[in-house]
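Input/output pair, single chain:
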Amino acid sequence: MKLTFKSLSLRILKASLTSITINIALYLLFESYNIIDTNLPISPDGRLFSMFPVLFASFIPILAAGIIFWVLQLIFHKYYVQIFKILASLILVLSLGTPFTIQAVPIKMVLGLSFMLIVVGISTLYFFTYKIFTHEK
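Output:
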């Protein structure tokens, strides 16, 4: 199967919209139940946690995954989907450590942020590796 720009763009768009929508809903839910602390500084300059990092963390990894998916297709014509599944799964597992980089983060917030990362990973794997909702043969 040849990957076209249109097909790749649709995969990125579908995965991004799905993960952004779910993560915004999760953010609002977690914020309402005090799982996510919006008064917690997340950077050395004192910026507080907000919805913007959630949006950023929902879109940028999927965009990067699209580029990786395209490069893998160019290099490994026949097995790029299988290689992408393995690589994306490995990156998802490694990314689960990133909530621990926030200073003095409560464990309930780590679990909430980890759940959001899993949403991005599953959305990426689903829309990039399956032919559902595409017109590919």
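Residues 5-32 form the longest helix (28 residues). The chain has a mean pLDDT of 90.
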